[in-house]
Amino acid sequence: MMRSLLNAALTMSCLLVMKANGQVVRHDSIADREHQLREVTITESRRQHEATSTAPLHIIDREQMLSLGITDVADALHRIPGVTIRDYGGAGGMKTVSVRGFGAKHTGVSYDGVMISDCQSGEIDLSRYSLDNVDQLSLVIGDNDDIFIPARNASTPALLNIQTIGMPTDDSNLHLTTQLRVGSFGYVNPFVRFEKNLTNKVALSMIGEYIYAENDYPFELRNVSKITHERRTNSRMNQGHAELNLVWKIDNMNCLSGKLFYYDNDRQLPGQVHYYTDLNRETLRDRNIFGQIQYQRRNQSGWSTKWSSKYNWNASIYHDPLAPNSHNDASYWQREAYTSLAVLFVPSEVWAFDYSGDLAYNNLTSSAERTVSNKPFRLTMQQSLTAKYRTRRLTALARLLHSVYLNDSKGGNSARNMRKLSPSLSLSYRLLEDENLLIRASYKNIFRSPTFNESYYFHYGSTDLLPESTDQLNVGVTYNCQASNFDIQMTADGYYNHVKDMIVAVPYNMFIWTCVNVAKVNVLGADVTLEASRQLYEGHALKFSGNYSYQQAENRTNPESPYYGNQIAYMPKHSGSAAVGWENPWANMSVHVTGVSSRWANNQHYDGTEIDGYWDMGLTVYRTFRWKDQSLEARMDVKNILNMQYEIVRFYPMPGRSWQVSVKYQL
Hints:
By secondary structure, the chain is mainly beta.
């Protein structure tokens, strides 16, 4: 079966490549085929693209990151409705994201067009990725209007795209960015970026970054009416990150890009804070190396191809000196080889079609035989077929994704093989011919295969698990109005999500928990966003960005259970954020606030496990000095300016008031 599937996929891919490269070129101009290029690069403005998208799309560009006082990737995602961040506190704390009641394992992350994977846990730690090297963040919930993507990029309910590198230009000058950021609790962060167009076709960039932080921030510990003042311990971090990027624009129709990425974080793990004790000496070293390459070919005949390949290596080395005989120590190594071919065909001004085929191999090994002894590996094959119809008033998109997961192990039982067809459909319609007032609706069915931890971890995992199946339905309206000195954009979306066969850990006996498919979850929610900017007079402008989200994520597993209808753990019913920026000739300023309602630390809602809601206010002041082709930017951020004491994850207190100051020089 596996051999026949591979042969079919390879045969289809070869035929499409031969067709794409062998098509007779007609003599119509690039300008006449701009609709084709739209599938490759975004030619609309950020707000127009958000407003016309058939599914909810949120874009944060470099200008917004600065003007709205955004400090890191997690902070940027706090400004997007429907997003829940799990933050374990401090600069080195792990940060994962879930969207609209789906867990973090259902949120994909793409780095310069290629998905990031973690076959062991299924969750991506966003603290690894520096905002200083990001040009644009975008979050799409449902299907992406850009259909010219790998099949894997369509395999999650929500996808976060991190875009870092641009195309080369005719500018042959050396571009250098250096930055030093220092802050509270021993935070030091030097950053350097080197960019050079070696020719008018070849561009090279190198990035280096280091972060050191003690993270010994103070916090309040409450025991009924007694309050003590403590300080976080065992929270130091040493983190390094380097990248090498190369873009070769062969000609107007062919482009080749490559990336080498290295990440190393040697950190202490702060433990849970209980009454009068937070004794912990655990350490974790994470190392990640990957290389990826993309080749893209377009021609005037309407055919385009995109080939992507990646090799990823990841190591996690855990040490617990307090455990007798180092019983808890363990090292884990992940490896992935991945390749993808996408073929786009644009036969007319209104139609576009895409076929994408992906192949990935993953394996996991461990130094601790008691944890993952099976040495599991997995072969994943995904194929998607997409059709898009677009006129000035109507856009419709339909996709069918076929996924095959073939599991095996070098010892012991292996997880079951899985295959499924996943359909999706989305559309948007402009209500008035000359107004940017649109309605949209989308449906997407997708499923998630169990992670290696869920399938193989000692006692905890189960090889009999079924995949989680999800359905998401969205209906919304968008409005965008632009004038000479004022523009505004509003979106409102209501949604219903359903999760079947959710994987949860249940007690097998008094001491052992194991993973089973038992849970069903329904999520009913709404997201509202508002963005506005006003040019007051020369040199002065006001910008506003705000959002509100309501999500009722309920356990619908067993009507006889006392926990039936409970809000899912760590899912707030209400959340929102707002930011106001004032640009002026002296020092630009931004005030921003994020608020989250109370949450529960478990699905059972035991007494004493409710986590209080919070709101966090920050202030950013910055000024850019320019002369000739150089600039110097000075910036100060004050976080949690009112010194609120709160937790996002139970027993992991967040920092109170803190500050950061940065100086950035650009040549």
